[in-house]
Amino acid sequence: MRLRDTQPALSVLSTLLSLTPTPASAFYLPGAAPTNYKFGDKVPLQVNALTPADIEGTAQVHSVYAYDYYHPAFHFCAPKDGPKWISESLGSILFGDRIQTSPFVLKMGVNETCKPVCKRQKYEPDHAVFVNQRIRQGYDINWLIDGLPAGQIMKDLQTDTLYESIGFPLGSGVDGRPILNNHYDILVEFHQASKDAFRVVGIEVKPSSRGTNKYISEDKAECGEEATPQYLENNAPTEVTFTYGVYWRSSPTSFATRWDKYLHVYDPRIHWFSLINSAVIVVFLVGMVSTILIRTLRKDFARYNRLDIAMEDLSGTGVAEDGVQEDSGWKLVHGDVFRPPKHALLLSVLVGNGAQLFMMAGFTIAFALLGFLSPSSRGFLGTVMIILYTLFGFVGGYVSARVYKFFGGDAWKQNFAYTPVALPGIVFAVFFLLNLFVWARRASGAVPFTTMLLLVIMWFVISVPLSVVGSWLGFKARVADPPTRTNQIPRQIPPSGGYMRPIPSMLLAGVLPFGAIFVELYFIMKSIWFSKVYYMFGFLFICFGLMIITSAAITVLMIYFLLCAENYHWQWRAFGTAGASAVYVFIYAMIYWVKDLSFTSWTSGVLYLGYSMLISFLFFVLTGTIGFFAAWVFILKIYGSIKVD
Ligand SMILES: *[C@@H]1O[C@H](CO)[C@@H](O)[C@H](O)[C@H]1NC(C)=O
């Protein structure tokens, strides 16, 4: 609390404003420029929030909260003049980074075996209970040394490769009595770039618990044995001395490749397998849709044209009415298919917002693919997403207005007003409510109030005006007349049964877009809830493409069946058909909860549920929009190529 909360937001502003690179670092992305140290120079060690990690052996996460490093109950040593906030980007803050300075002194190339971090720390029983609870939940400490996250070297048994896993445990003894790690051996690898330029290229922290640590003076301590671990008593105050050692090792790793160890592909075979799996689904589906449609449509066109000729012949003899009765299939609804749907305003607002999301997702993935969003530029991904979303408010407004005009709507003021407010409003409201929980827990995952304020300002000052301009242009733009005229009186819709009923048909169709993405979803979930680095943007890009194709293809097929059943309410059906894949995303999130997460507090569950619902809803709007546009184009095409008198 105090000043701390306001600090990050101020630095956010300055970071946002200074996103344009200065000439000196023009060739580096933010955060990617190397820092050269001379021998003996101080290398900064910064501390980030403590995050829940998967407990070894169980692969389960027990909490979703992150805790501020200087949360009073932890009693971690702070710098003498108090910790200072490090400036961070907006994305970095939203994704949970809370970086501050620390009292650790690391001098380039100078080994230290045992130094005290600060004077003895006294844990009162209530704080001891709190810390023991966090140890049982498997919390990890996160440090940054020269911008590189500290971690532990692990071995992937499947591929037999070494990789660095970010973070190191606060304590251990998960099953028995918790012990606190109060000694850290910090191994830093450096690379000598030139005579007087040393760069940090690797970090490993080996924490241990030493109950016999002794504080002697400001920079002298006696480090105890690991044989007698440090317990925190639940019924009497415990005194703990934190110590550390620093070991520098020369390494051939160059600065440019220092992130490679972190980017560990867990099992590339699973990835390729899933990708091929999805690709097969897509090829099969697109093949099926195109053969069915091309064959039957060709037959339909031929039949309709024959009927036309027959009718022209018959019209001379006055028996045309019987000829019309012969007609069947989708042509019959030509006088109704362009009838505006119910709740046209809501649908146009959703489609507009979906288009905005689509542009944001597409551009973010493309940027990432081109290597603009390397993990070294911390939080850059999140920042780019937010900026793109804000700017694409323009697209949202334009699309929403165009669609609404096509529907022949007249509540223009509402359309202009709801489009920029609806979806961001829902997202923001949910986000705000969930944040209240985190605030109530006094955990640090809560987004500071000032950052929230900044988001609202960006939304109202940039996104809303852009959206209104877009809406106005969309409103002014000429909308081509639909290829067939709409009849005065709506046609009766014959009852349809079985799989053509709305819910079964949507659920049936929704499986396919979900099938295209579900393995990638696993990795995304892992990176969100296990705080792992996500970087497989190549896979994500292909999955995104496959998802678009499957959503479009399955919607076109279902809408064709719908029209053949003489049902012309295609607009919402198309949106729901592709959007139904969101139901599966939600179910997937729930299965993931049961399998990989086991929360020890109900508020963690509420947070998880809330975020899962939010993500599923966004996915619904995104895929629904893809389905709607695919169906729209399809219908314009087929009704444009038949003759109607
Ligand atoms: C510092 O420690 C590392 C790791 O134990 C060792 O390889 C290196 O030689 C030491 N450096 C000095 C100057 O003693």
Could you please describe the fold and organization of this structure?
By secondary structure, the protein is an alpha+beta fold. The protein has three domains: 37-257, no CATH class; 312-338 and 492-645, no CATH class; 342-476, no CATH class. It is built from 15 helices and 19 strands. The protein has helices at 6-17, 90-94, 125-136, 268-317, 320-326, 344-369, 380-391, 393-406, 412-441, 449-476, 502-529, 537-564, 570-579, 581-596, 602-640, and strands spanning 42-43, 45-52, 100-101, 106-107, 112-116, 121-123, 139-145, 148-149, 151-156, 161-166, 168-169, 171-172, 179-180, 183-194, 197-208, 214-217, 220-222, 238-240, 243-250. The strands form seven sheets. Strands 2, 3, 7, 8 and 11 form a five-stranded antiparallel sheet that branches. Strands 5-19-14-15 form a four-stranded mixed sheet, with no helix packed on it. The longest helix has 50 residues, at 268-317. The model is unreliable at 1-28 and 316-326 (pLDDT under 50). It binds 2-acetamido-2-deoxy-beta-D-glucopyranose.
Any chance you could write out the topology, listing elements then pairs?
Blueprint: H1 6-17, E1 42-43, E2 45-52, H2 90-94, E3 100-101, E4 106-107, E5 112-116, E6 121-123, H3 125-136, E7 139-145, E8 148-149, E9 151-156, E10 161-166, E11 168-169, E12 171-172, E13 179-180, E14 183-194, E15 197-208, E16 214-217, E17 220-222, E18 238-240, E19 243-250, H4 268-317, H5 320-326, H6 344-369, H7 380-391, H8 393-406, H9 412-441, H10 449-476, H11 502-529, H12 537-564, H13 570-579, H14 581-596, H15 602-640
Parallel strand pairs: 14-19
Antiparallel strand pairs: 1-4, 2-3, 2-7, 5-19, 6-18, 7-8, 7-11, 9-10, 12-13, 14-15, 16-17
2-acetamido-2-deoxy-beta-D-glucopyranose (NAG) binds at residues 111, 247-249.
